[in-house]
């Protein structure tokens, strides 16, 4: 375990100096700062930050996660010559990257919000929810990025797949939901819609947050069903569990694949 | 000299006699006064007399006023209906009531017990009273030329069935309702078969159903009122020649809440109003020839829900700012007209700098059309997929109404 920690420590130190991570940090910082200075309405700012979290973060994490493995292949090969368990190397790399991205996300979005904390005093719970959502998006999609890179030796193919995964979760999946809801609109589909959004981490993060913006009143009966589900503790517990499963699944699969892989 | 004195005397006499006609006797009701109950004073009162009610709590069942008299409360005397009775029933013209606090008019499912009911009267005035926890507060039936001014009407009711309306008008004409505050009733102001009346400067909030509700009430004017946080907002139905100006509709938020619900309204004007944070700002169904000019629609769920059975609704110089959906409809046909509005979603340009965008704006998004027909799809709100869909539809409109278009969108927001 201490070896994992050591790897994490060096990885974080290394990553925080990388141009990519500094770029992400600046992106988050400038984007959030610009949003806040653009409007006085905290809800608008938070909705735009939500958009960033559910669209940009998965893309960044997937693509960067994939590239990260490819770029560090020599380093990984070198590490494997040492008497270190493969699991330790994999988790070291994974958490090293997660922590770095998370730090630049927290600081990049957090500093502008802290500077304008008066604007957000009323919607503090939404801010916290946004950070939790962002945290899970980072965990999940970096995991996927790693998994894809481990599974595909061809860099181009790996990148293609990771972009496809992003497309699937953020666009194609919603298209399928819309198709289903339109095709079977004569049936009561509220429960089905609820189940389907639970299965997609991006949709889940989106719904959790927009429900907080009173959008549920627009949805009529569907809104009531959703509000009822996410409003009580069981619903929140289930959604957190789903997010946790999504975070663990790609990581564990990737780790297993990495252990069996012939490098 | 004598002659002059005589004229003076005559003038004085005439003056005194007119005074007598105008004010009559004054009957004072109070613990230590000639009359210790309102009923005994009413029994003795003559035409044109004044009853002055002093401070205190009066429990006298139903008071019937059938002569033209003036009732004035000093230090807001409380008249209690004990949750059983109608408190004051006015059956005479020219009655003036002021300065009372009327509480607990009786709940009944058979009779509309009110704190003050005016039945078939003319020229009555109810001014500066307080109403607390009544079933109906002020109820006018078949009356004309009455004024209801500066009353404060409050109730804390739980269900629509056990609650009456704040100000209820039925079959009335030329009524003025001004500067009243109404909260916690079923409908704040309710008008049915009312003509040529004016509703001005009232504040109606937290009512269970509608802040203002009128039906079959032609030629009425509504101006400078505030309708806030009512269960279902404001509903106006089956009426011609309505004028609604300078009102504010705010925070009517809920599954079936509307800033204004227009149903079967024709030849009317809705001007200079503000719609702020309503789940549906303006819902229009079966209406014809309505001019909607110079209004502000800010941060509503839907700014305008325009059903396709409406025709010749004109939207001109309105501001649409930060609404989740600006306009939605339920059909691909459109017989209404949008011109020179400001849309915060407009992304066009203005090369000749005349303040009018050079590219037409289509306020209907494909997604809003889908949502109008299939509500559960709203779970996809703010999904990237939906944004892409809307963008595609904007470039090649296929499903959204071709004619629902603002050909001259304003580049800058209108300020009054």
Protein described:
The complex is a heterodimer of chains A (263) and B (416). Chain A has one domain. Chain A is 84% helix and 0% strand. Chain A has helices spanning 2-16, 19-38, 42-71, 73-80, 86-115, 124-151, 155-183, 190-199, 201-212, 221-231, 233-260. In chain A, α3 packs antiparallel against α9 and α6 (124-151) runs parallel beside α11. Chain A is globular and about 60 Å long. The two termini of chain A are 23 Å apart. The mean pLDDT of chain A is 89. By secondary structure, chain B is mostly beta strands. Chain B folds into two domains: 23-231, Single-stranded right-handed beta-helix, Pectin lyase-like (Pectate Lyase C-like); 252-416, no CATH class. Chain B is built from four helices and 38 strands. Chain B has a 25-stranded parallel sheet that branches. In chain B, strands 3-6-9-12-15-18-21-24-27-29-32-35-38 form a 13-stranded parallel sheet, with no helix packed on it. The longest helix of chain B is centred in the N-terminal third of the chain and has 22 residues, at 2-23. The N and C termini of chain B lie far apart (66 Å). The chains are: A mainly alpha (263), B mainly beta (416). The interface between A and B is medium-sized, with 37 and 26 residues.
């Amino acid at each position: 375990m201490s070896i994992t920690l050591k790897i994490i420590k060096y990885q974080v130190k290394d990553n925080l100096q990388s141009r990519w991570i500094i770029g992400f940090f600046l992106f988050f910082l400038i984007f959030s700062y610009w949003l806040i200075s653009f409007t006085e309405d905290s809800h608008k700012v938070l909705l735009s930050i939500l958009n960033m979290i559910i669209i940009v973060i998965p893309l960044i994490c997937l693509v960067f996660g994939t590239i990260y493995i490819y770029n560090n292949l020599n380093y990984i090969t070198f590490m494997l010559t040492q008497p270190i368990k493969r699991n330790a190397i994999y988790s070291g790399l994974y958490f090293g990257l997660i922590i770095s991205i998370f730090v630049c996300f927290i600081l990049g979005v957090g500093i502008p919000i802290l500077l304008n904390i008066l604007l957000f005093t009323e919607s503090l719970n939404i801010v916290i929810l946004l950070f939790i959502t962002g945290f899970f998006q980072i965990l999940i999609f970096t995991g996927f990025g790693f998994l894809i890179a481990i599974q595909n030796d061809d860099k181009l193919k790996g990148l293609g797949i990771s972009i496809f995964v992003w497309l699937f979760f953020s666009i194609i999946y919603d298209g399928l939901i819309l198709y289903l809801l339109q095709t079977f609109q004569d049936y009561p589909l509220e429960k089905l819609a609820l189940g389907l959004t639970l299965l997609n981490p991006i949709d889940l993060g989106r719904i959790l947050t927009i429900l907080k913006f009173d959008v549920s009143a627009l949805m009529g009966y569907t809104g009531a069903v959703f509000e009822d589900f996410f409003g009580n503790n069981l619903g929140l517990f289930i959604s957190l569990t789903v997010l946790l499963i999504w975070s663990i699944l790609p990581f564990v699969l990737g780790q297993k694949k990495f252990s069996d892989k012939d490098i | 000299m004598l002659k002059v004195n005589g004229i003076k005397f005559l003038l004085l006499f005439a003056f005194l006699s007119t005074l007598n006609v105008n004010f009559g006797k004054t009957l004072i009701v109070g613990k230590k006064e000639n009359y210790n109950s309102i009923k005994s004073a009413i029994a003795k009162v003559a035409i044109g007399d004044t009853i002055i009610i002093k401070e205190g709590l009066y429990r006298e069942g139903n008071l019937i006023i059938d002569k033209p008299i003036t009732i004035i409360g000093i230090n807001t005397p409380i008249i209690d209906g004990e949750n059983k009775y109608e408190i004051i029933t006015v059956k005479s013209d020219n009655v003036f009531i002021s300065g009372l606090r009327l509480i607990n008019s009786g709940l009944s499912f058979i009779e509309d017990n009110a704190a003050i009911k005016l039945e078939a009267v003319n020229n009555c005035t109810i001014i500066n009273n307080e109403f607390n926890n009544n079933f109906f507060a002020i109820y006018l039936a078949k009356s004309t030329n009455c004024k209801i001014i500066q009353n404060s009407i409050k109730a804390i009711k739980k269900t629509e069935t056990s609650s009456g309306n704040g100000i209820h008008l039925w079959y009335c004409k030329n009524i003025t309702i001004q500067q009243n505050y109404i909260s916690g009733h079923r409908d704040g102001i309710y008008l049915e078969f009312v003509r040529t009346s004016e509703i001005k400067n009232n504040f109606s909030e937290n009512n269970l159903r509608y802040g203002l509700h009128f039906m079959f009430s032609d030629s009425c004017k509504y101006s400078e009122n505030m309708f806030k946080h009512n269960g279902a907002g404001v509903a106006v139905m089956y009426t011609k020649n309505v004028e609604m100006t300078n009102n504010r509709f705010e925070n009517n938020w809920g599954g079936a809440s509307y800033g204004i619900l227009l149903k079967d309204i024709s030849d009317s004007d809705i001007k200079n109003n503000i719609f702020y944070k309503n789940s549906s700002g303006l819902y229009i169904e079966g209406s014809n020839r309505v001019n909607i000019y110079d209004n502000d629609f800010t941060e509503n769920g839907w700014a305008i829900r325009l059903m396709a059975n409406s025709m010749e609704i004109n939207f001109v110089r309105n501001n649409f700012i930060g609404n989740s959906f600006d306009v939605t409809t339920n059909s691909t046909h459109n017989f209404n007209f949008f011109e020179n509005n400001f849309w915060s979603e407009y992304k066009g340009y203005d090369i000749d700098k005349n303040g009018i965008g050079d590219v037409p704006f289509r306020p209907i998004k494909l997604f809003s059309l889908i949502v109008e027909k299939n509500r559960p799809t709203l779970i996809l709100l703010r999904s990237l997929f939906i944004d892409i869909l809307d963008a595609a539809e904007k470039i090649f409109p296929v499903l959204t109404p071709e004619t629902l278009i603002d050909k001259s969108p304003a580049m800058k927001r209108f300020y009054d």
